[in-house]
């Protein structure tokens, strides 16, 4: 797949600008079971205007999206992050009001079926594990909470993870194994796994500057489709790619350690807030320089491991900071971006021909 992309001349074309939010847009999430088999794609967005918006493709063949619903009463402060459950039935939203809400679609509307409380202050991120049986949240209170999803929309906190020394910016589950990753204002990425003997969760690895990690706030984490590589982005204006022995990890050895593979620098000149890896292997980044960059693994591997090259850079993709970039999980080469300018843009990666 990579070699085909390498041979193509590609451009990032803006398909549509979605307007409606009255403040910066922080987070985006594609519903994972829409946009396929004749189902129109669905996208959730959240922002500083305290709302969550649900956008839907007009029909499966259309490139236009309409606002299906505006959820205004769910949170009392900024909604920082949103994430769909793997079944696409529930949407979790994390807010500066210190709560995480669980929304469920009921006919054409969404209703709040549960509110998770416990963090001392702003909740920054929320993530479901691959099976939808666990939910993770993180906060400015430096803690990561793991919740077990129970029948009847009940959520039970099974562990409070304390290890970061500053605001935790993002939590992200591994795509195939129940191992959790968190990144922070303390410049580190922490890897958390369940202790088989005690059923409690513990930190099994910390990726910091001393082991080729970032030198400033780590804003985001994403994994490739197979889960053997992870990409991170930071206030230090670099993107780092990490690798793991996936066979060892999937065999149940949660202590399998992640190692630094390469660092990409010189592509953005301000904080990189978001990174997302597509199923096809394209890494997208969005930054405070208002640009989107796309990277792919280069064919010419060195003895030091894989190398990545810039596929394209879209300057002035938005008028202000880009807070989130998200590839569609079902439609290849469809990308959404969210910005401080209050808009969401839908992009298509097309060949120049």
Question: Could you walk me through the main structural features you see in this protein, from its secondary elements to its overall organization?
Answer:
The chain is globular. It starts with a helix and ends with a strand. The protein has two helices and 28 strands. It has 353 residues and is mainly β.
Key descriptive features of the protein:
2 helices, single chain, four-stranded antiparallel sheet, 28 strands, 353 residues, mainly beta
Rg over CA atoms:
19 Å
Query: What profile does the largest beta sheet have?
Result: 4 strands, antiparallel
What is the N-to-C order of secondary-structure elements (H for helix, E for strand)? HEEEEEEEEEEEEEEEEEEEEHEEEEEEEE
What is the helix fraction of residues, given as a range? Answer: under 10%
Q: Which outline best applies?
A: globular
Task: Give the integer mean of the pLDDT values.
Answer: 94
Helix/strand structural class = mainly beta
How is the largest sheet built, in terms of strand order? 1-28-27-26
Q: How many helices?
A: 2
User: Got a strand count?
Assistant: 28
Strand composition percent: over 45%
Low-confidence stretches: none
Q: Distance between termini?
A: 18 Å
Write the layout of secondary structure elements.
Blueprint: H1 2-7, E1 10-18, E2 25-30, E3 42-47, E4 52-57, E5 65-71, E6 79-84, E7 90-95, E8 99-106, E9 109-117, E10 123-128, E11 134-139, E12 143-150, E13 154-162, E14 168-173, E15 179-184, E16 189-194, E17 201-207, E18 218-223, E19 229-234, E20 238-243, H2 246-250, E21 259-265, E22 272-277, E23 283-287, E24 292-297, E25 308-314, E26 322-327, E27 334-339, E28 344-351
Antiparallel strand pairs: 1-28, 2-3, 3-4, 4-5, 6-7, 7-8, 8-9, 10-11, 11-12, 12-13, 14-15, 15-16, 16-17, 18-19, 19-20, 20-21, 22-23, 23-24, 24-25, 26-27, 27-28
